[in-house]
# Entry
Amino acid sequence: MQIKSMDPMTLKKRLDEGSVILIDVREPNEHAREHIEGAKLVPLSRFQAEKFAGLQDKTAVFHCHSGGRTSANAKLLNSKGFRDAYHLGGGIVAWKAAGLPTRSQQPAGEGRRKLFGLF
# Structure
């Protein structure tokens, strides 16, 4: 089963319009390091349990790091009954390559370690 692809610029436009819900299927540590603002975190490792109450009438766009996980899990992603489902072609890597912003968080203390030359 295939899942349709959406390019980063189309996704950005549709996010700005509020016509899609963006779902990040990466793990919490990946999302914490860097994510697309507004993405709902639902890791593949607990995707089966997610109910998505009240969201099935929306168009869903799933994303991972480079697109591999979303493509490989298309059947599972489509099983949640969204009106329409896509994946972000190329994942967050393509989003950044298109010059679109992400939010990054440094692990606690990382800046201090660099300041003192520990890494």
User: Anything to note?
Assistant: Confidence is low (pLDDT under 50) at residues 108-119. Residues 8-17 form the longest helix (10 residues). The two ends are 45 Å apart (CA to CA).
